[in-house]
Design a protein that fits this description.
- With about 160 residues, the chain is an all-alpha fold.
- Among the domains are: about 40 residues; about 55 residues, no CATH class.
- The mean pLDDT is about 85.
Length: about 160
C-alpha cells in the first residue's frame, strides 16, 4: 500500500503558498507608491459617487415635497362651502381642473427629469382631458409612459405598485 508521507526535506522546504506570498510581499515593497496612489484614487472615487448620490437624492426629495404642494387643488372640494371646512371650494370642476393644470404644468417645468415630474404627468393628463385638451393629454401620457423603467421600481410598474 502506497503512503503519501512527506519526508523531512519536503517538510522544511517552502510550499507554494509561502513562495507566492514571498513574491507578493516583494512586489508590494517595490510598488508601494503605486499601491498608495491606487488606494487614494479608489477612496476618492467612492467619495465622489457618494456625494453625487446624496445630491441627486436631495433633488428628488425636494421635488416630492413640491409635488405635494402642486397637488393641493385636488384636496379642495367643488360646490357649496360646508360648515367647518377651512378650504374654499371651487365653483365648478372646470375651475378645479384649470387650477390643477396650471399648478402641475409649472411644477413639471421646474422639476423636469425627476420621478415626481413623471408622477405628475397622469393627474395633469386627467385634468387636461376633462378640460377638453386632448393634445395635452397625449403629451402627458407619452411622458409618463416613456419614463425610465428602473427608476419606477420593479418591472417598470411604478413605486409600490
Amino acid at each position: 500500500m502506497a503512503t503519501n508521507r512527506l519526508t523531512q526535506k519536503e517538510l522544511r522546504a517552502p510550499d507554494a503558498f509561502q513562495r507566492v506570498g514571498g513574491e507578493a510581499r516583494h512586489w508590494l515593497e517595490v510598488h508601494r507608491t503605486l499601491m498608495v496612489w491606487a488606494v487614494v484614487v479608489v477612496v476618492a472615487g467612492a467619495a465622489v459617487v457618494a456625494i453625487a448620490s446624496s445630491l441627486s437624492s436631495r433633488g428628488e426629495q425636494r421635488a416630492a415635497r413640491a409635488l405635494g404642494t402642486a397637488l393641493e387643488p385636488l384636496d379642495r372640494p367643488v360646490g357649496e362651502p360646508t360648515p367647518g371646512e377651512d378650504k374654499k371650494p371651487y365653483a365648478t370642476q372646470a375651475e378645479k381642473d384649470q387650477a390643477l393644470s396650471a399648478s402641475l404644468t409649472s411644477f413639471r417645468a421646474g422639476y423636469s427629469g425627476t420621478l415626481s415630474s413623471t408622477t405628475a404627468a397622469l393627474p395633469l393628463a386627467a385634468a387636461e382631458l376633462r378640460l377638453g385638451q386632448p393634445d395635452g393629454v397625449l403629451a402627458q401620457a407619452a411622458d409618463s409612459l416613456q419614463a425610465d423603467p428602473p427608476r419606477l421600481g420593479a418591472r417598470g410598474r411604478g413605486p409600490g405598485l
